[in-house]
């Protein structure tokens, strides 16, 4: 059997499995589905890694609220210490899947975030909800935004200011680099950057290991509450409704467990829809994920920004129009190929990859739209877009739509 034939058959099988779960029979696949005998998940327990961040919520709530049982599996969330640990456990097979950084999965596919492995993104877990925090020492020196930060950086020897992000190919590295570069700061020559696990960000800022960081919530709000730093920018101010964490795994795992992949995606998708359905559900989610097994912080540190109620530590408060979202009628959850391609353009921009990749082909290989569509059918009532490309405008006015990725990657004045 040729590779092409195998791929088509597997994808037909996934679609057929979801159709059966929804009480439907799709033309052209009935014989294969019945030949397989069952669309039941191959695994009954699925171990899913997570980092203690607000955006782990869909994975946690899928297990806590029983959405996993609805699709024939038991999700076993596994709290991890760092993104490097998540990477290593995904690659070793200790984790079946994970709440994971978009850029980590793409970095592994290209061999720039660890050993090259073929990876898979089953769905996007959230949009928005990260932040760039600066220390109160900078605030005391009159630094309140990226423009005044640029002046402070220029007044010191190159590389004397240190900033932290969470992983070399992380979303947080990309937001930080983009934000700094928007004001003319080269993040590779003008400042020093280091990797710090999210739960350790606030303490490292407190003891002076860095003057700024980009990290997920609730750690930016925690910096304000602990009187250590302030929010200089939200990630959604860099890119409104940007992709953030994904439900990631190895391609090999999906191939070996196609029904389990569909069931896992359906359970987490169903949970994401439930969270976004009301503020009451979000508040319930906060009360759960604040507990020791999950994030281990006070609920009030999480709740405000979960509901879009922001303060920046400089006296400003606002209701953010692009706060953290988990579903938004499926627009959040769908694994847009253009989202993955954007990270590839930034890897190229910053010299993490030296030659232009086949942007769309890589995105289509990683982003398992076939699994997502089958899961969406199983869940029911989930909108699926006609195209895998979407249009976005970032903070500098640049428009990204995935149509000419190499020209986009080369269009920046500051790059490596």
UniProtKB/TrEMBL annotation:
Subcellular location field: Endomembrane system
InterPro entries according to UniProt: NrtA/CpmA_ABC-bd_dom, TAT_signal, TAT_signal_bac_arc
Superkingdom to which the source organism belongs: Bacteria
Keyword terms: Cell inner membrane, Cell membrane, Membrane, Signal, Transport
Gene3D superfamilies assigned: Periplasmic binding protein-like II (3.40.190.10)
Signal peptide feature range: none
Gene Ontology cellular component list: endomembrane system
SUPFAM superfamilies: Periplasmic binding protein-like II
Predominant cellular place of this UniProt entry's protein: membrane
Family statement: Belongs to the CmpA/NrtA family.
NCBIfam families: TAT_signal_seq
Cross-referenced PANTHER family: ALIPHATIC SULFONATES-BINDING PROTEIN-RELATED, NITRATE_NITRITE BINDING PROTEIN NRTA
Protein name listed in UniProt: Nitrate/bicarbonate ABC transporter substrate-binding protein
Organism listed in the record: Mangrovibacter phragmitis
């Amino acid at each position: 059997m040729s590779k092409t034939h195998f791929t088509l058959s597997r994808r037909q099988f996934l679609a057929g499995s979801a159709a059966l779960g929804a009480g439907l029979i799709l033309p052209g696949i009935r014989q294969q589905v019945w030949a397989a005998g069952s669309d039941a998940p191959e695994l009954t327990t699925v171990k899913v890694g997570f980092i203690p961040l607000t955006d782990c919520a869909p994975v946690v709530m899928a297990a806590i609220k029983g959405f996993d049982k609805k699709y024939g599996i038991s999700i076993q969330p596994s709290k991890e210490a760092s993104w490097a640990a998540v990477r290593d456990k995904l690659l070793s097979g200790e984790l079946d899947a994970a709440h994971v950084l978009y850029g980590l999965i793409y970095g592994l596919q290209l061999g720039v975030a660890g050993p090259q492995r073929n990876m898979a993104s089953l769905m996007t877990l959230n949009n928005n909800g990260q932040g760039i925090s600066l220390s109160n020492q900078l605030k005391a020196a009159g630094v309140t935004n990226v423009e005044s930060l640029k002046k402070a950086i220029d007044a010191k020897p190159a590389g004397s200011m240190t900033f932290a992000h969470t992983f070399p190919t992380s979303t947080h590295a990309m937001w930080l680099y983009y934000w700094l570069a928007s004001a003319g700061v080269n993040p590779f020559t003008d400042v020093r950057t280091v990797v710090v696990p999210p739960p350790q960000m606030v303490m490292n800022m407190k003891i002076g290991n860095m003057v700024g960081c980009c990290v997920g919530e609730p750690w930016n709000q925690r910096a304000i509450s602990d009187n250590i730093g302030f929010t200089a920018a939200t990630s959604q101010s860099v890119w409104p409704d940007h992709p953030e964490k994904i439900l990631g795994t190895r391609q090999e795992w999906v191939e070996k467990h196609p029904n389990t992949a569909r069931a896992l995606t359906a359970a987490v998708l169903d949970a994401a829809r439930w969270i976004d359905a009301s503020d009451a559900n979000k508040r319930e989610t906060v009360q759960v994920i604040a507990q020791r097994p999950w994030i281990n912080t006070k609920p009030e540190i999480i709740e405000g920004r979960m509901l879009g109620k922001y303060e920046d530590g400089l006296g400003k408060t606002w209701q953010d129009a692009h706060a953290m979202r988990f579903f938004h009628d499926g627009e959040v959850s769908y694994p847009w190929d253009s989202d993955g391609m954007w990270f590839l353009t930034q890897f190229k921009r910053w010299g993490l990859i030296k030659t232009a990749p086949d942007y769309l082909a890589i995105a289509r290989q990683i982003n398992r739209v076939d699994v997502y569509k089958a899961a969406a059918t199983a869940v029911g009532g989930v909108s699926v877009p006609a195209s895998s490309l979407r249009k976005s405008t970032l903070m500098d006015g640049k428009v990204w739509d995935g149509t000419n990725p190499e020209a986009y990657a080369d269009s920046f004045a500051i790059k490596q």
